[in-house]
Amino acid sequence: MSIGDGTVEANGVTYGYLADGPEDGPLALCLHGFPDCAWTWRHLLPDLAAAGYRAVAPFLRGYAPTSVAPDGRYDGAALADDVGALHTALGGDSRAVLIGHDWGAVIAYAASTAQPDKWSKVVASAVPPGPAFITALLTDYRQQKRSWYMFLFQMPLADIIVAGNDLAFIDGLWEDWSPGYDASDDVPRVKDSLRDPANLSAALGYYRAMFGEASAGAGADLGSGATQPRLYLHGANDGCVGVEWAGPTAEVIQDAGHFLHVEKPVEVNQRILEFLAS
Predict the structure, then answer these.
(1) Looking at domain 4-277, which of 3.30.360.10, 3.90.1150.10, 2.60.130.10, 3.40.50.1820 is its CATH number?
(2) Do 241 and 138 meet the contact criterion of CB atoms below 8 Å apart?
(3) Is 147 within 8 Å of 137 (Cβ atoms)?
(4) pTM
(5) What is the pLDDT of residues 193-209, one digit of tens each?
(6) CB-based contact 32:40 (threshold 8 Å)
(7) How far apart are CA 278 and CA 141, in angstroms?
């Protein structure tokens, strides 16, 4: 692979990232989710590069090798500010596009709404835009069962539970959310990003902040006010967010679960590239 790595300072955080493509190409910023890391964009980065993009996948705030946030913030406003700062630090312009999965999708909704002039198009997957997912989380018993981990993460004991037995909790989430997928090329790298207790606490901090007042004004509506053209993808077998909540504009990827971009990379990449070229 031609994927390289680097570091960049943005919004007071030292970001580690993976990158491919020409330095003068339009920026395509790819944001991962939980429990995940930048390496799950390994299939998409070369395809974006071949299409002329400068494709960059940062390890999110708090995920090694990116530094833990010096201000301790993991709320939606801070995460959206990070994305705007990364756009500037990486030389982005008005042609730049945002691509996000899971938490990366939530952050993409917030950032594209907060700074619409920076992003020409948005691609998201695994967390639907608009109020649907919030409604499901508050009202639908089936989705509440799927999202049980969010409530567990509010407890201090979660740091011990998730870390136990070499982060076996993460293996379990991948097995439940993408049933039948062999994640042996993915989960070890995710664990490397979260094995240090400080990094794991940071990742759990996203969930601890999501119910707080600080994040209520940044992305809580999951991009309802965004104006950019948007593509939304959802796996038909997603064990984390039920496909019934994907919404009428979703493009559903058959025989794929939550981590659809590594389960069905050829189909997912093709849909993304066709959308970006349209």
Answers:
(1) 3.40.50.1820
(2) no
(3) yes
(4) 0.96
(5) 999 999 999 999 999 99
(6) yes
(7) 39
